[in-house]
Amino acid sequence: MISMSIFKNLKSSYGNENMLQEAWSVKATLICSIRKDGSVFLSSSMDVKSSLTNADLAKNFA
Predict the structure, then answer these.
(1) 24, 29, 23, 25: which is closest to 46 by C-alpha?
(2) pLDDT single digits (tens) 43-53
(3) What is the extent of the structural domain holding 47?
(4) Taking the mean position of all CA atoms in its chain, how far away is CA 9?
(5) How many domains does the chain have?
């Protein structure tokens, strides 16, 4: 569920689905946990082969 919503966000940020698939070779493990104060903490471990940097990814998840 979470990965689907992130995929949609990336798709809208970086173009259509075909462009995204061509630009990315990704193995991602997403970890989402809800803290006691109700905020959501999202961390990711990715093997990304693309022109995008981790900073580019992070601003989309912020």
Answers:
(1) 29
(2) 555 555 555 55
(3) 2-61
(4) 8
(5) 1
